[in-house]
Design a protein that fits this description.
The complex is a heterodimer of chains A (527) and B (372).
Chain A: H1 2-32, H2 37-41, H3 45-78, H4 84-91, H5 93-96, H6 99-110, H7 115-122, H8 134-157, H9 162-170, H10 175-203, H11 207-212, H12 220-230, H13 234-258, H14 279-301, H15 313-320, H16 323-327, H17 331-359, H18 362-372, H19 376-390, H20 401-422, H21 426-434, H22 439-467, H23 471-475, H24 484-493, H25 497-523
Helix pairs in contact in A: 1-17, 1-18, 1-19, 3-8, 3-10, 4-25, 6-14, 8-10, 8-20, 10-13, 10-20, 12-13, 13-18, 14-25, 15-25, 17-20, 17-22, 18-20, 19-20, 20-22, 21-22, 22-25, 24-25
Chain B: H1 12-15, H2 19-25, H3 32-61, E1 65-70, H4 72-76, H5 79-90, E2 93-98, H6 102-111, E3 120-125, H7 126-135, E4 138-139, E5 162-174, H8 185-188, E6 197-200, H9 206-231, E7 235-239, H10 242-250, E8 256-260, H11 263-271, E9 276-279, E10 285-295, H12 301-311, H13 314-317, H14 320-323, E11 327-328, E12 347-348, H15 352-370
Parallel strand pairs in B: 1-2, 1-3, 6-7, 6-8, 10-12
Antiparallel strand pairs in B: 3-10, 4-10, 5-8, 5-9, 5-10, 5-11
Helix pairs in contact in B: 2-3, 6-7, 9-15
Classes of the chains: A mainly alpha (527), B alpha/beta (372).
Chain lengths: 527, 372
């Protein structure tokens, strides 16, 4: 009985993919792609040029993001760094904020009135524009994605037993040699996972590339969006989506074959034994400043009035406005859905990933990353078509939103869970199985305590990601339904910039609180 | 059939409370059976009356229902005031749905083409209207009061869309950094504006697309490419949408951006600030027109037609300037804040057919120039 559940569980991601992603997506395909010429039109030389650029920038960005994250992974997993859980929590923040907020955060550092220029002026220089180049895109993508390396690689690193390292030390190996010969090979599989995630997000990047890249650059996602939303040329948009998804899926398969599962040494909390080295201070300072800048500027921006200057006016306006007029829903409804929908989606994606990632079949991996190439807008249109087909009243289309959310976070969740299982000492579980420990007891007493930090980490990350989701939320909304992100969108789109800034600042504060909470739950009271 | 007529019937059941009223009507009936009969009848009658009343209420709800599709900011803005007026005028219910922005709105109509649920759609601009006509989701209608539209140039000759407001894009500048804004497109090419202009991407933004079409209207099909090549060094960056452009602009990244003629009026009205001002180059303004249309296959055609006419009435038109920040299409009086809006003196247009056949090519040419 138990065995069969586990066997079925291993296929859960495929079921999930077919029902939640493929079904609505293929409804659109059958509706709009009637002849092969539209697929061929996706191979227009103009699109191929954009595709090449997309690929190049994503590869460079992902490699650099992994490199930039490695020292952080070491610091957080191996040294006795002060305020570990708080710092660890906030470094993850850039990853979950929307691209546009990210771009604005970069402005506050590198922009004409940004931090770097302020320092330049202080030393007698003149203000100049440091953004709007290819380099700016790469820097932004690295900032966006290095935290994930810290998380994925760091979690694995903390599980490498100290005994192993002490043994090597006794044999006279230097710290660098220990890293290169022992730790790096052990960490290679999770490093590869971190690369895939970073690549996936850089490949589908949109706002960062357009805004910070200046005049010249755009990605495939820009063309997909254009055909989907502005030109409403669905055949081209869908064909390009397939191309994008197949590339992502195939690449992850390829990288997958490079990855071998290492059996970790017996699990033992080894974190925080080494002395906090001095070079880390510089790294940490830079990391925290760049990582914190976007969310920090979101909060600060909440206090900036129209045309500049500090003010509390934004919050006064926000608290006095008629929420119901903007959203058709009252505050209680907004809070209810903003909590419930991300909760359902995150729980679903976590459940599926947790079960599927243990066996991690190549086919699962392909489909999982394939899903990352399908944009939220495409998926919502698919659900519109599905709702239409099933005769779902327009008053209830919002019931589909949690499914879109779960599809969105699924690639991330799955990869994080693969990482968690990779470093999990399966022998312990086998021993427990041999001892006849029941399935749920194995989860409660063995798996959960050991995976707690990964599970809570993944949960918070995914929850926060969908909390700010707008594209699918607004497409599938119905009267009387609203979420906090929808409220922000309505405020922006009706030009209520000040109220929108206040709302954004509140969202940023909620995000910080959630991360700190997630980190606390993941690390405190060890069993 | 309204519920109010019911109380006009003599209603003994409502005349008093309890048995007294019953005995009054039952006077002269000698036997007890009769009395009981009457009692039952009257109680029963109350039930009947209650049912009639309920039915009346039901017919109230079952009265004409108009399903309107629009975009978010219309629903959150003018719809709040305007729709109730229409409901009162035509004794009907307006059910309004929004799906984010105007692109989503049309996508929804296309997805529902086989089984349309909407009667009326509000908020398609020229480009989306073209696409909507091409997809066959609208049916033409010429409202009887169309003559109240002050400018014939706004009309859709095929009558699939009826214009209800229009605006012009403009160059908006930060008056704290710019003393003499560019007065013409040629001025914009001046080297003093190097890396000074923020533009929206015509592939992802309707504002960006309008700006591209504006340059085609000014320089013609042959000249616009040359203009963009010359303009390129003066563009700081290209953003996906208006929001992002405005945020960059407000953070002082560049002193000029492509935005709307009413921006000055808006910031004066909302924030009492005249810092950001709009200027329309002397070559003429390119207007963005928004249309209302009747959905093909509407199940409530007569009411939909009345709605289209209602859109051209003052009750509707006068709500637009301060909620949509667009100009009304009829001669209603403009609010005071509009003295800070850039003046539209000359209107440039491109024939719809030309846009339809050439737009994709122009965008491709634009991309080629930009990514050189």
């Amino acid at each position: 009985m138990n065995k069969s559940i586990e066997r079925w569980g291993a296929y859960a991601p495929i079921f999930f993919f077919i029902v939640v992603v493929l079904l609505p997506f293929s409804l659109l395909i059958f509706r709009f792609i009637n002849d092969p010429s539209s697929i061929i039109s996706a191979f227009d030389p103009h699109y191929l040029r954009v595709l090449r650029f997309t690929f190049v920038q994503a590869t460079i960005s992902a490699v650099l993001a992994v490199l930039a994250g490695f020292p952080g992974a070491y610091v957080f997993s191996k040294t006795n760094i002060p305020l570990r859980s708080f710092l660890k929590a906030i470094t993850l923040i850039p990853f979950v904020i929307p691209g546009i907020v990210m771009a604005m955060g970069m402005l506050n550092i590198f922009g004409r009135r940004g931090l770097v220029n302020d320092i330049l002026v202080l030393f007698g220089g003149t203000r100049k524009s440091l953004l709007y180049t290819f380099g700016a895109i790469i820097v932004a993508h690295v900032v966006y994605n290095f935290p994930l390396t810290i998380r994925v690689v760091g979690d694995a690193w903390s599980k490498i037993s100290d005994d192993l390292i002490s043994a090597a030390r006794v044999d006279g190996a230097s710290r660098i040699k220990i890293f290169a010969r022992i730790e790096l090979p052990l960490l290679l599989p999770v490093t590869v996972l971190a690369f895939i995630l970073a690549f996936m997000y850089c490949f589908t990047s949109f706002a960062v590339v357009l805004i910070l890249g200046g005049v010249r650059y755009s990605t495939l996602e820009v063309i997909i969006y254009s055909n989907l939303k502005v030109r409403l040329n669905f055949p081209v948009a869908l064909s390009l989506t397939i191309v994008q998804s197949v590339i992502l899926g195939a690449l992850s398969l390829l990288v997958f074959t490079l990855r071998k599962r290492y059996v970790m040494d017996m699990w033992e909390p080894a974190a925080g034994k080494e002395k906090f080295p001095r070079w880390c201070i510089v790294y940490l300072a830079i990391a925290v400043i760049v990582a914190f800048a976007p969310i920090f500027s979101s909060i600060v921006y909440g206090f900036v009035g129209y045309g500049g200057g500090f003010t509390l006016e934004n919050f006064r306006r926000f608290s006095h406005m008629n929420v119901e007029m903007f959203t058709g829903a009252n505050v209680a409804t907004i809070v209810f859905y903003s909590c419930l929908f991300p909760l359902i989606a995150t729980a679903l994606a976590l459940f599926v990933s947790y079960h599927g990632a243990r066996s991690d079949f190549p086919i699962n991996r392909f489909f999982t990353i394939f899903a990352a190439g399908v944009s939220p807008v495409t998926l919502s249109y698919g659900y519109m078509a599905l709702g239409d087909r099933l005769g779902v009243s327009m008053n209830y289309t919002y019931f589909f939103i949690p499914l879109v959310y779960s599809a969105l976070i699924f690639p991330l969740m799955y990869t994080l869970m693969v990482g968690a299982w990779d470093t999990f000492p399966v022998e312990i579980l086998e021993m427990a199985e041999l001892d006849g420990v029941k399935r749920w007891k194995r989860f409660v007493y063995v798996i959960f305590p050991m995976m707690k930090s990964e599970i809570f980490g993944a949960f918070t990350l995914a929850f926060v990601l969908v909390l700010g989701e707008m594209a699918a939320t607004m497409t599938l909304q119905s009267p009387g339904f609203a979420t906090f992100s929808l409220l922000i969108y309505r405020l922006y789109s009706s030009r209520h910039m000040l109220e929108a800034r206040a709302a954004n600042a509140i969202l940023a504060l909620i995000v910080i609180c959630l991360f700190v909470l997630g980190e606390k739950l993941g690390s405190s009271h060890k069993t | 059939m309204r519920a109010e007529i019911i109380p006009l019937e003599p209603d003994p059941g409502n005349a008093g409370v309890g048995n007294e009223s019953i005995s009054f009507f039952a006077a002269g009936v000698p036997d007890r059976v009769h009395h009981i009969f009457w009692r039952w009848f009257l109680v029963y009658k109350r039930v009947v009356l209650l049912l009639v009343l309920l039915m009346g209420i039901c017919t109230l709800f079952a009265k004409g229902e108009l399903v309107v599709y629009t975009y978010d900011s219309f629903l959150a803005g003018p719809a709040q005031k305007i729709f109730p007026k229409f409901e009162r005028m035509y004794d009907c219910t307006v059910k309004a749905y929004s799906f984010g922005d105007a692109g989503n709105l049309l996508a929804r109509l296309i997805l529902e083409k086989g089984d349309p649920k909407a009667d009326v759609v509000i908020g398609l601009d020229q480009n989306l209207l073209l696409k909507a006509v091409e997809e066959g989701v609208l049916q033409p209608y010429k409202p009887i009061n169309y003559t109240s539209i002050k400018d014939e140039g706004l009309l859709d000759p095929s009558w699939h869309g009826i214009p209800y407001d229009f605006g012009s894009i403009a160059i908006v500048y930060d008056s704290q950094e710019v003393e003499s804004p560019p007065r013409s497109f040629q001025d914009l090419l001046d080297p003093r504006w190097r890396r000074s202009l923020i533009v929206e991407d015509p592939r992802t933004s309707s504002t960006g697309l309008a700006f591209l079409l504006w340059t085609v209207a000014v320089f013609g099909e042959e000249g616009f490419e040359k203009f963009w090549r010359a303009l390129k060094p003066n563009i700081l960056t290209v953003t996906p949408g208006w929001d992002e452009a405005f945020q960059l602009f407000e953070q002082g990244e560049a002193p000029l951006m492509v935005s709307y003629a009413t921006d000055g009026a808006y910031s004066y009205h909302e924030y009492g600030s005249t810092r950001y001002r709009a200027v329309i180059p002397e070559e003429g303004a390119y207007v963005q027109i928004e249309y209302v249309g009747i959905v093909k296959g509407s199940s409530n055609l007569e009411l939909a037609k009345r709605f289209v006419e209602f859109v051209l009435m003052d009750a509707f038109q006068k709500e637009l300037p301060l909620t949509q920040w667009m100009y009304p299409v009829t001669d209603v009086e403009l609010p005071e804040a509009y003295k800070y809006a850039a003046k539209i003196e000359k209107v440039l247009t491109l024939p719809m057919e030309l846009i339809k056949s050439k737009q994709e090519e122009w965008v491709k040419k634009w991309v080629a120039i930009i990514s050189e």
